[in-house]
């Protein structure tokens, strides 16, 4: 059975291009691990780069992209289920599954088999918690120690709220199983980590390209289709700041400045999460940026050959 290959890295690191070229070489299919690319109509802001799935005239099969309408809620537990079904189908066809993405929580959930993702949403608790500043929420979470504490991602307010929800549930339901029951696939995990200066340059260049290619128009169309501004702000980054511009809450130049700053911060948080994945026991082979992408492909292909059953 072909191994599961994972290509991860921060935004603008070149994950999609590497993954699609690798899929072309190996006869693979792509499993997206991006929490926003699941939404239809959110193409430019999420960086789907669908043109990169055409490699030398061949369309690379891809999954978990454009599976929901914008405005719907998606969560880690559902991603685990969708991922498992897509992975099984790929393997049934004898193809090589290649995971590509930068949403660390999604990657960690399927690679380490998180069990707490099935804990239900508590809307009443969320409404109560929304009243408090982030520092208060962080202190409240730290006062709820549990087996989940070490796994929690509290890097954003949205994820901190979910962590509090899970911690509260575990306090109220001590019988909840502590051990993961989600299958943990064996995987070859490769990471892209461009030098910080190069990463920042790419992020800035790509942001301005997206603005030129219709990012603002994409957000306007979503608003015209009936999505409320708060629904779009929920998706963060491009959708939050461009929505503020489209609704007249923020002038153009400050919008660009703040968005660029937040994307740089986001990339830093991604790398922090990936390093945590390593500390928690997931081995990541970081590709050497002194080498060419062709050398990376050769390296991965050789690793796959070495691990393939004789």
From TrEMBL:
Reported function: Catalyzes the transfer of a dimethylallyl group onto the adenine at position 37 in tRNAs that read codons beginning with uridine, leading to the formation of N6-(dimethylallyl)adenosine (i(6)A).
Annotated binding of substrate, by residue: 11-16
Complex and partners: Monomer.
Region (Interaction with substrate tRNA): 34-37
Keywords: ATP-binding, Magnesium, Nucleotide-binding, Transferase, tRNA processing
Name by which UniProt lists this protein: tRNA dimethylallyltransferase
Catalysed reactions, as listed in the record: adenosine(37) in tRNA + dimethylallyl diphosphate = N(6)-dimethylallyladenosine(37) in tRNA + diphosphate
Listed HAMAP family: IPP_trans (MF_00185)
Record Pfam families: IPPT
Entry keyword Electron transport: no
First-level EC class: transferase
Sites annotated Interaction with substrate tRNA: 103, 126
InterPro entries documented for this protein: Dimethylallyltransferase, IPT, P-loop_NTPase
Gene Ontology terms describing biological process: tRNA modification
Residues bound to ATP: 9-16
Similarity comment text for this entry: Belongs to the IPP transferase family.
Entry's EC annotation: 2.5.1.75
GO molecular function: ATP binding; tRNA dimethylallyltransferase activity
Keyword Transcription: no
Cofactor(s), by name: Mg(2+)
SUPFAM superfamilies: P-loop containing nucleoside triphosphate hydrolases
């Amino acid at each position: 059975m072909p191994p599961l290959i994972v290509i991860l890295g921060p935004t603008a690191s070149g994950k999609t291009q590497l993954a699609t070229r690798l899929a072309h070489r190996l006869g693979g299919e792509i499993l997206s691990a991006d929490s926003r690319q699941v939404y239809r109509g959110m193409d430019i802001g999420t960086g789907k780069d669908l043109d990169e799935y055409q490699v030398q005239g061949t369309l690379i099969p891809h999954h978990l992209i454009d599976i929901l309408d914008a405005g719907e809620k998606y969560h880690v537990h559902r991603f685990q289920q969708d991922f498992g079904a897509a992975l099984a189908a790929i393997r049934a066809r004898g193809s090589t599954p290649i995971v590509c993405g930068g949403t660390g929580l999604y990657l960690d959930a399927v690679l380490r088999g998180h069990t707490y993702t099935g804990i239900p949403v508590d809307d009443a608790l969320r409404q109560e918690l929304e009243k408090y500043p982030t520092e208060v929420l962080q202190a409240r979470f730290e006062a709820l120690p549990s087996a989940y504490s070490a796994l929690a991602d509290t890097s954003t307010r949205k994820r901190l709220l979910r962590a509090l929800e899970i911690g509260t549930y575990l306090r109220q339901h001590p019988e909840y199983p502590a051990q993961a029951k989600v299958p943990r696939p064996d995987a070859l995990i490769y990471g892209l980590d461009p030098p910080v200066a190069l990463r920042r340059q790419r992020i800035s260049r790509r942001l301005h390209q997206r603005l030129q290619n219709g990012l603002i128009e994409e957000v306007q169309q979503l608003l015209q289709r009936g999505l409320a501004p708060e629904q779009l702000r929920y998706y963060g980054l491009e959708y939050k700041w461009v929505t503020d511009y489209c609704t007249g809450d923020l002038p153009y130049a400050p919008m660009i400045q703040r968005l660029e700053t937040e994307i740089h911060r986001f990339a830093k948080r991604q790398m922090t999460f990936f390093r945590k994945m390593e500390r928690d026991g997931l081995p990541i082979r970081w590709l050497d940026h002194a080498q060419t992408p062709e050398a990376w492909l050769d390296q991965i292909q050789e690793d796959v050959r070495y691990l393939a059953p004789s």
